[in-house]
Amino acid sequence: MTRFNQIKYNPRERLVEVGAGLVWDDVYAALNPLGANVVGGRATGLGVAGLSLGGGYSYISNQYGLAIDNIVAYELVLPNGSVKTITNSSNAELFFALRGGSNNFGIVTGFTMKTYPQGQVWGGYITFTGDAAEQLKLATLKFMANVTDPKAAVLSTFGYTPTANTSSVNLLLFYDAPTPPASIFEDFLVIPAITTDISTRSFLSLVQAETTESLSGLRAVVHTVAVERYDETFLDSVLNETVFWGQKLGSSSSTFISYGIEPFITSILSHGSAYAYPPDRTKAYLPTNIYCQLTNVAKSSGQDIDHAALYTNYALFDTPLERIYGDNLPKLKQIKAKYDPLNIMGQAGGWKL
Question: What CATH number is given to the structural domain containing 92?
């Protein structure tokens, strides 16, 4: 029997069975009173299955890796109709393929995930006027240069709203404890803000602080640039492009442009081994949620990113599969042909092998 909409916690083994039909809010709400948490989505309304099959960056990824690093079993309905529990010991090749290989091998109806102790956290959202972009840029650069605490995370977003003809700047701060060390976020907190929603709260409350309701009914297209590091030249280009493209669209456009800067520590990929994604775990690239000509900017600063794998869940719809799976692509195609010879899963959306 599938676990499509179920959550079952095993405190002795510190594992939770999660139905693929749920959103992360459901999982956090169930685990919160139990003092437990999983590596999952960072915004309310995100589905468990999509993020978990594509990689999965989290606020606690600096400590525990990606979502796929913390999945120990999949409940999989194979294209022939049989239902199997896939683990590394029961079927190593499918286990490899499902960890980042998207929905190519059958319908995943449940995940068994590692859990971790979770108390209250500190953080929330801050919004600024557009003229705070330079200060936020400098604070972000200083944070990346000096902070190695895996409990700390920031997400700096630079955007432009053509209808208002103005830049938009916002920030997410996170610390996995009720109170952070005073020095970690001080450069962010001194920037004059429009709104501030920072508090000691539950992990669920922090995730629900980012709502996507304002985007309901709108189309969104995202892409990614995988970079080795953020430097001042790169972030200056981000600031310039938000204004250039925002003004190019004109005030009559309903389009909103956003560039998300997501610094993670270099050890983030040390929590897992070889999976479908990323194809190379020897170097952690930053899965920047942005686009335009920023690849060229990073390369001009000496970054070797020609073969950097693009993050599955951010990559644009027509991205060549080689740019996501690299040298793993031939192996994934072989596994796909073995378990889905009639290409049943080719009728579904997503990245198709």
Answer: 3.30.465.10
Q: 150 and 134 in one domain?
A: yes
Spatial CA neighbour of 36 closest among 96, 119, 92? 119
Q: Which residue from 38, 42, 40, 47 is spatially nearest to 14, judged by alpha carbons? A: 38
Q: Look-up: residue for tokens 């456009």?
A: 253
CA distance 86 to 45: 27
- Note the pLDDT of residue 94: 97
CATH code, domain carrying 182: 3.40.462.20
- 1 close to 17: Cβ distance less than 8 angstroms: no
> Which positions of the chain have pLDDT values less than 50?
1, 212-215, 291-293
Phi/psi of residue 329, each to 5°?
Answer: -60, -45
At residue 166, the pLDDT reads 78
Q: Tell me if 226 sits within 8 A of 291, measured CB to CB.
A: no
Which amino acid is residue 226, in one-letter code? A
For residue 278, cis peptide bond before it (omega within 30 degrees of 0): yes
Tell me which residue of 145, 119, 157 sits closest to 43, measured CA to CA.
157
Per-residue tokens: 230: 């953020």
Per-residue pLDDT, 252: 56
Distance in angstroms (rounded) separating the CA atoms of residues 72 and 351: 23
Q: Say how far apart CA 203 and CA 268 lie, in whole Å.
A: 20
Q: Judge if 189 and 134 occupy the same domain.
A: yes
Identify the CA nearest to 109 among candidates 53, 25, 163.
53
pLDDT, residue 220, reads 61
Q: How far is 190 from 125, CA to CA, in rounded Å?
A: 14
Cβ 113 vs Cβ 18: under 8 Å: yes
Question: CB burial class (10 A; 0-12, 13-18, 19+) of residue 286?
Answer: buried
* 231 and 147 inside one domain: yes
Flag whether 270 is in a domain: yes
Q: Do 127 and 112 lie in a common domain?
A: no
141 and 75 in a common domain:
no
Residue ranges of E strands in 100-183: 107-114, 116-117, 121-129, 152-161, 166-175
Q: How far apart are CA 283 and CA 84, in angstroms?
A: 33
